[in-house]
Amino acid sequence: MTDRNNPADWPKAGPIDLAIHDLPHASSDMEWWYIHAHVTLVDGRDVSLFSSFFRQRDRSEARGVDRHGHTVLWGITDVEGRRYLPQILADVQSPEIAIERLNASKEERDPHIRDSLLELLETGVLPHPDRKARAEAHVPTDRLDLRYDDNVFTKLDDGRYRMVLSGDDGELGCDVIITPRKGPILHGDNGVVRGVSGGDMFYYFFPRCDIEGTVRMDGKDVEIASGNAWYDHEFGIAGESGRTVAWNWMGIQLDDGRELTAYELIYTDDLTSAGGWCVLIDTEGKQHVYDDFSFASSDPWTSPTTLIEYPRQWVLTVPEAGISLNAHTAIDHQELITMISEPSFYEGRITLEGTQNGVAISGTGYLERSGFEHNRTIGEHLVRVGKTTRKIVADLVPRRPTQSELVRMVSGEDDRGLLDGIDLDLVGSLALDPVRDIIDRGGKAWRSYSVLLCRELWKDDRREPKGIHNWLALPELLHAGSLIIDDIQDGSNVRRGSPAVHLEYGIPLGINAGNLAYFLGETVAQESDAPDSAKLKIYACYFEAVRAGHLGQALDLAGPGKLVDDAVETGDPTALLAHLDLVYKLKTAVPSQSAARIGGVLAEAPEEWIRGLESYFLELGIAFQMVDDALDMQGFEDNRKVRGGDLLESKWTWPSALALSRLDLEDRRKLRAGIDNPTQEVVEELLVMIGETGAIEDTKTKAHSMSNAAWATVRPNLRDSHAVVRLRALSRYLLERRR
């Protein structure tokens, strides 16, 4: 541990002099002043709030300066309304600082996310809910008077603290006075704790304070009737351990007038301990420190935005004190998505009950959980999306359903005896297993992800709707049905790395399973609290995609016919390429486009806005298929498809059609003959021929150009948000993938 006399501006042994140590510390690389409170308003509502005023040293070689950046993160939990209302205000120079850090860490970031984030930051803004301060923070060093735009934390002459928080739209905030009743209490080893970056931090806190004033919600200031607050202050030196650390922290106010705080640091590479501290403060303000304590968590909640899992249930055990506390989150959705602590962290109200030496105890507290999830690549995120989607499908379409589950799948909740006497095992093995087999093999699931992403583009999840994740299953079931039927009609042998469904179950059951998958999507709506009007719009959109897909498949099965003859003889594939574009639009792009509409409808977005987003997804869907055509000829990274598979099936695609404009008549006729009568040897020759024309790479270039042009059109209608960054990164990934 660092000697408490070093750094020089840390507290000396003995009582803390708050006149000095409440102030900013010149030696600190990181410092924060943190408040949380639980209050009852005069109108009877229970509300919790927290805030963290951060001050972090920014050493920039590029700018040749050593300055501090300032950020305030805060939020309100409306328990009765089941809303979480977060706010993030970042330093006025945060876009420039973020650009420098992104450019300095090119090898550490997903290039699709990095480039998409840079694209936004270079306009001088931050992705919502992060917002840039209007002016430099006011942080004097001779008194505690933090002013970050309209957000204030200041110490009054009588020793009390005033905190003013102000939201970006004037609808949210507070103006409160905080009066310490206990403390200051030293955490850790006489105030010294290990920081998350490996350096030492000094940490003291006031575990119980009076709080008075007003809380603003929905634009109205409401007076506080009663409540308790918690204030802590931490400052220290950045470490150089090189190992990433995550943490769980609880600050608890027990109903019997005592307080308990515990936190653990965890190395994320091997999940071993990086340190931990537990302190119990009795009713007289005396602290009792325990080294032996443990957290256990269960019942995860999955964020609809990040798909990160956060435990809802916790058990805090302190054996020496005889304490065992069961904690549960007041509401599920208490996640902050921010560049300040990427990709997000959990900071929210918990309620607790348990025992100490057999005597019942209870209380209220705050939970912070951060660092267990890092910035995943888009590919890794889609793996998570696929995993989540498959779990939802498994819940909605179990392989061996109970009678009531089968009734739900077939008749909704209206059991009229239609399925009485049915053999559940037989139905499962003949009808449901083929559908589940194709889905459980995995896939990119980007269409499913697009539903949630497009919803988020318009609407913040301040109140998580019931069943929102279930909508992930809708595009996946549609896509699964089309894959099963396509493989039968095309005579394909392999799908997602395994034998095609019809080869395992036979063509009749394969056809039945493909058709069943289309209609199972309707069961999604039963588990959603979306209004009936929204469900009707989604049904219309969904079945439009089904009809369009079937029309496109009909054109694909018939083939381009005379268009190939004309292109071969003239060397002009314009009409042939237009035909392929139409097939791609109907088969691939319209189902992709439906994800945009479903997300927009769930967000209650205006029709004009939804149509603009649909137009982008239409172009993206066509571009996606063009890239798929190119990869078919280059070979997929994971060999989940046979290289040259389209040629082996006598299919014309964008690269082969484009190549006709670059070959002489003799080679055009040779290409035509090879596609009409393919063998593996012939296909290998054709792949070389097409590749030498540059048509494969130019197909990918054309796909990028289409997507970028469509993005330029739709982007002005989309707010600057993390959702926009993720959509742009997803689009880049889909067009630059190797699998």
Tally of domains: 4
Estimated share of beta-strand residues: 25-35%
Pairing-aware structural class of the strands and helices?
Answer: alpha+beta
The CATH class of the largest domain is: Mainly Alpha
Count up the helices. Answer: 20
- CATH architecture grouping of the largest domain: Orthogonal Bundle
Helical content band = 25-40%
Shape: elongated
Oligomer: single chain
- Mean pLDDT level: 91
The number of distinct β-strands equals 25
How far the N terminus sits from the C terminus, by CA atoms, comes to 49 Å
CATH topology of the largest domain: Farnesyl Diphosphate Synthase
Our Rg estimate from Cα atoms comes to: 30 Å
Commentary on this structure:
By secondary structure, the chain is of the alpha+beta class. The chain folds into four domains: about 1-90 and about 135-240, AttH-like domain (AttH-like fold, Beta Barrel); about 245-375, AttH-like domain (AttH-like fold, Beta Barrel), CATH 2.40.370.10; about 380-530, Farnesyl Diphosphate Synthase; about 530-739, Farnesyl Diphosphate Synthase. Helix content is about 40%, strand content about 30%. The chain has 20 helices and 25 strands. The strands form three sheets. Strands 1, 2, 3, 4, 5, 6, 7, 8, 9, 10, 11, 12 and 13 form a 13-stranded mixed beta sheet that branches. Helix 14 runs antiparallel to helix 19 (about 695-715). Mean pLDDT is about 90; it is low at about 1-5.
